[in-house]
Hints:
Elements: H1 14-42, H2 73-93, H3 98-111, H4 117-130, H5 143-156, H6 160-167, H7 170-197, H8 203-214, H9 219-228, H10 233-258, H11 267-291, H12 293-299, H13 303-321, H14 323-326, H15 331-356, H16 363-375, H17 379-389, H18 397-423
Helix pairs in contact: 4-13, 4-18, 5-9, 5-11, 5-13, 7-8, 7-10, 7-15, 7-16, 8-10, 8-17, 8-18, 9-10, 9-16, 9-18, 10-11, 11-12, 13-18, 15-16, 15-18, 17-18
Amino acid sequence: MVLQLHAPLNNHHPHYSHRRHHRHHFRHRHHHLQIQRRLNIHNPPQIQLPKLSFSIPISPSLRFSLASRSISPLRSQKLSASFDSASGQNYASEPPQIPQQNKVSFLEVLKKSNSFLPHVTLASTLLALVFPPSFTWFTNRYYAPALGFLMFAVGVNSSGKDFLEAFKRPAAILAGYTGQFLVKPILGYVFGTIAVAIFGLPTPVGAGIMLVSCVSGAQLSNYATFLTDPTMAPLSIVMTSLSTASAVFITPLLSLLLIGKRLPVDVRGMVSSILQIVVTPVAAGLLLNRFLPRICGAIRPFLPPLSVFVTACCVGAPLAINIESVMSPFGLTVLLLVIAFHLTAFVAGYFLTGVVFHTAPDVKALQRTLSYETGMQSSLLALALANRFFQDPLVGVPPAISTVIMSLMGFSLVMVWAKKKEEQ
């Protein structure tokens, strides 16, 4: 028997080569899977989210929007921290509103107290008639400081530039001067003659009406102009100051022509009165407004109520002090004549100004200013002249009534014209 021995398979045998290739492929695939698992552990796949947009209505001025494609825990923590800090900062920066509104309303009440001036003037008149001792303490020595305080209030709310602009209107100043010392004396002579010739009143009463028409403009007209047209207040002050300064010559001359008696007016006393009542207070207010604006702003809201109180005293005191003359048998007739005299003066000043300055851009404000200037005069000065230079006390009755009527009518016009301006 012949044995045939097979030679051992070498590396190049086809069967051995196939097994080796299959084993190599399996090891390679296993190694690839292990690498893929490691990659998945260390780098997890990101979650794809749609684009998100949302808003949080914390306040109308604070809105946030978030837009992102992928959100991680770290990024969400940063976003939350920034959102909290922004919200806290917004609320911390918002000032409280309620206290500020209360403060503004309180100041507005003080500033608008001038609107009650006609009512307070009427109330002081009735109080002086019913209970005169309520005003008799306000004697003549308080008049100059009281009127000076009103002029100080006007100066605080004005500037030097306003007065310079006032001097640039000589035609308006001349018109105011003409109303004071031409139109008004004519009206005084007419109504004084009517009182004696038609109503049969004593001659001293007619002389008292004429004396009222001979004096200069009243400082209350400046304050009335300031309440209605603040920009016209410097012009009104210039008119009143010029008429008051020249009254030391014009008033005695007019009294000689109308009444027939030359009044020895104290020139030095009238100049001193002008300085105390007009020049010094207005200058002090202007300087305070120019160099100490903070102090000026602090005291300005309190000036209107104080001015209302001072005006009430200036109206009620002359009536209370001269109550016996006012309540005389012919007091009602004198009252009606004085009302007619002032009413005609107010109307004449208003319409004559409209005719002369009809082309002026501020004709309405100018009409109101000259109406105050013509219809309101220094009845307190007329009362002082009557008590000093006339022996008959009846001469002082028309000036005492004029002080009250002039103020009531003037500040009633303030209320009417101020309301009409607000409606426009």
